[in-house]
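Justification of computing resources. Each target in the renewal requires a structure prediction run like the one illustrated here; the chain below, 309 residues long, is used simply to show the kind of job we budget for.
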Amino acid sequence: MSPRTLPPIVEHQNDPEMLRLLRAASASHARAQRLASGHVVVSTVLAVGAVVGVFVPVALTPLSLVGLVWAVVYAVGASTWTKNEFRRAALLQETFDTRLFGLPWNHVLVSRGPSADEISRLARHYRGSPTRLRDYYEIQDLPRPFDVVACQLQNLGWGSRIRRRYAGFVRTGLVLWCAAGVLVGVLNRMPLTDVLMHWYVPSLGLLLLGVDTYQAQQDTVAAREHARKALLTRTEQYARAGALEAQAAGMLSLARQVQDVLLQTRLTQARVPNWFFNRFLDTDRADFAAAMDELGRLVATPTTASGQG
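Resulting structure tokens:
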């Protein structure tokens, strides 16, 4: 399908085929999140066990051994299993985006996308509300390639904000847990070796998971912020030049590069937990609606809108 015959994104994203892809992607993301949550639960239970072990000496050795085993299991295999789920969910999302935006598949980065039978199978596993997936991208009806840019800016900006916030949340939890271990050791006048063995070893899996999550989220934020700034700058230049049709291909080529950034950051990290995302949903939606309005003004009056900021 040529760029000129592509249906508007605001309509095309609600086509049955596209909604089926979204159901499959959402089901796969949910599975990846359940695995990640399972790791958190196991690691947290063992970490809490460390608190019990401090006051119930008979439980110290078993808890330390179990905590060490879980840390090894997580480092060797559990994290890899979860990352494989992240990868499948990311490829499903990439399939949705490339079809919606009319962008070519990057066969150098990923050889192929999910098969039709896999999409169909996963779509049947979706348990959410059908209406929740409609109007996935909350954008105005803009001319191409501004509609593609709007969707990508929403992905880059919204994703960066929520992931930066989640990284800070995880970092705070790690700091508080480590500080609590020091405090317990001081109050109970425990030797350093006892604090290490009876507090930090049982919670080693949780600490490893927390550090991995924090670093991955920070890397994602850095990559997406860089891409967002580059896309914004090029879009403003394109609009000021009159949004010439001859330059549209260059904008879509840049959009493909931006999509590569989105895919690479999705391949190793699942979305943040739904409860955390929903906690800030209303305020974030209002902020990014304002950003979309600004893009709409730029498209409508490129020279004036660009000179206002």
